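Reopening this ticket.

The earlier resolution said the output was attached, but the attachment link was broken on my side. Pasting everything inline this time so it's all in one place.
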Amino acid sequence: MADLAGAWIFYSVLPAWPWPRPRFSRIARFASWIGLVLGGLQAMVWLLLAGRAPALTQAALVIVLGLALSGGLHSDGAMDTADGLAAGDRCLEAMADSRVGASGVQAFAQLLLVRFAALVWLAAAAAAAAPAALVWAAFWARLSPLIAMDRFPYRSARGTGAFHRHHWRGLALELRPSLLVLAGVVLLVPAAGAAGFSPGAAPHPWLPLLAGAVGVLPAVLVPLWLGRRLGSHSGDSYGACVEWVEALSLLLTAALVALLPL
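Inline output:
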């Protein structure tokens, strides 16, 4: 509970809990839980705006809310990582620089556009699918740094995110909270059905589960790709994993819902 309270503070700008006293040593394993909350809040706003605002406005406001709820924590890391990748031999220097370079600005613009395109596509193809897509994307995005932490060394022992690796106890243990969520979804989705999720007249109870499973692909591949390009990971590249996995998960879900014959 103390680590969960720490994750709540570290990964969001939501008000801190009065109890228990937060601890930050192993918060990464609960990041996916915080993602469920943040994605859920975005889903609520999507539903509140449905039919009351144009699709473009709806998509834009949901994206703005997501950035506000995270305090821009991961966006900053994505921009610094892009600058580092573009700097070649000066990668470390570029990532440590508090100023944002051209590559960082381009990466941020790309992330916003991919998210926006995905949500607009969902609004056109199956607007009711967007809430589930937002929750799933936020979940997989915050799970993905666990892959990076397990497979690659940390770039600097004194970096701001070094505590994640210092307190690491192996992927099997760190994944347990996320696997608990997945087990619950597998049990609940068939029972609850998928009313309102699919664009067809008949519900498809398997579709939310399938759409959510699409996020596994970027959640694994993005941290592996970045780790190989950088030779290691850092707090910034953990943030880049979160941002790109969330954006790509939304896009893949939109493609799935739009292109599958239902």
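Reporter confirms the inline version is readable. Residues 90 and 132 are 41 Å apart (CA to CA). The radius of gyration is 18 Å.
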